[in-house]
Specification:
139 residues, alpha+beta, 4 helices, 8 strands
């Protein structure tokens, strides 16, 4: 489990807000080579990598796949899909043993509707993560 100051969602939150949002958190472990997310899934859950490293791969025309990124602990997966209702756009495959925290979409959105201040912090964290990933692509 990541410490609050290293967690991409929690670093802006108070202890009470962390306790509230962690109440819906589901911890899941994956072995190296295991698929976390598959392209075209309708799932909109938000995922935080607590430990390990994953490969983000997109399908190319003709059926082959290309790795577009690797993510390690302290990164989120699924920010765009959480905000924009679409199918998953990439496969996410564990490169090492991986532990993630899953924030189920329905439960998280219900929690955010009840807590506007918490919603603002979550969306700020999502924007920060997306900006980091975008800037990394430019390098």
């Amino acid at each position: 489990m990541l410490k609050a100051d290293k967690h991409p969602l929690y670093h802006l939150m108070s202890a009470a807000e962390i306790q509230l949002i962690s109440s819906i958190e589901v911890i899941q472990n994956y072995e190296s080579g295991e698929l976390l997310i598959q392209t075209n899934q309708r799932n909109r859950d938000l995922i935080c990598i607590n430990r390990g490293k994953v490969s983000i791969r997109i399908e190319l025309t003709g059926g082959s796949a290309q790795e577009v990124s690797q993510l390690e602990s302290g990164n989120l997966i699924g920010e765009m899909n959480f905000v924009i209702p679409t199918r998953r756009t990439a496969d996410v495959i564990a490169l090492t043993e991986v532990e993630v925290s899953i924030y189920p979409y329905q439960e998280l959105t219900a929690l955010l509707r009840q807590n506007p201040a918490l919603a603002a912090k979550v969306f700020t964290a999502l924007n920060f993560q997306l900006a980091r990933k975008y800037l990394a692509m430019l390098k």
